[in-house]
Amino acid sequence: MSNSLIEITAIEIKELAVIEPKQASEKFELIAKTMSDDQLAEVIENIDIVTLTQINGQHDISFPSIISELMTPERIRDIVCQQPLYWEEAIKNNADELQQHTFDFLNYLIRTQESEAKQREILECVAEDPAGLFYLAIPFIEFYRGDRYEEEEGYRDVLHAEEEDLEESLRYSERQQSEDVHDYALDDPRSLLMLIRELAPEVEKSIKSLLRNEHSTWDGIINKFAAELVMQAKEKNKVEEDEYGDVDDMFSFLD
């Protein structure tokens, strides 16, 4: 397939996504039957992050996604950081809904990948971005927040009971050498956290450190992180718009 046809395909996907992102996702799945993985990857590279975010956001996450399988870790990181701009008010203003939504989206993006190496690359890439780390942390706040009480020596953190359960389950999983035999289903956030620990322990440490340094209420932390994510996403969009504006100015003499 020539470069021009790849560009045309990308344009068709983008135009359809403006009208109906879900249809754009379905069209990509149909196109995938007629193109190689390398060709599809080129199509994806010709689609902007905003469109990719909309398409992935509308995909039925109960089914594997070819587009998420073929995206690079960097593209997935950018989508994770962009997605907060598309949170519905019902999600953004409800701590429980937001925690579930972020878990579902991460679970979909990570579990879709065919290899552990790709999963590890995605986790490490997302965690390198401050906004990405905020996003990664939201589903696991209840496990790492902990409570604090005052002693003679000062304040001391009490490890949340859920975290103790998680530690025990992880040890059990390590003994069995298989994630499939632990007690948590794939739709349980603890299962994803265990996967992160196994594949990218430094990422898990970063999540834990971020959350254990927060001392507000559970929903207060979620609201703070959500506000930070939306703000950073807007700032990144502004930078990109300014960059495009600079390019336009360079060629303004042609107008």
> Biggest β-sheet: count, sense, barrel?
2 strands, antiparallel
Total beta strand runs: 2
Kindly state the percentage of residues in helix. over 70%
Structural class: mainly alpha
Number of domains: 2
Contiguous helical run count: 15
Mean pLDDT: 80
**What overall form do the CA principal axes indicate?**
globular
Which H/E pattern describes the elements?
HHHHHHHHHHHEEHHHH
First-last Cα distance:
34 Å
As residue ranges, the low-confidence spans are 147-161, 172-181, 243-255
Folded structure, characterized:
This protein has helices at residues 3-19, 21-31, 37-45, 49-58, 66-70, 73-82, 89-92, 95-111, 116-128, 130-137, 141-144, 161-176, 189-199, 201-212, 218-250; strands at residues 147-151, 154-158. It has 255 residues and is mostly helical. The chain has 2 domains: 1-71; 94-144 and 169-241, no CATH class. It has a two-stranded antiparallel sheet. Helix 1 packs antiparallel against helix 2 and helix 6 (73-82) packs across helix 9. The longest helix has 33 residues, at 218-250. It is globular, with a radius of gyration of 20 Å.
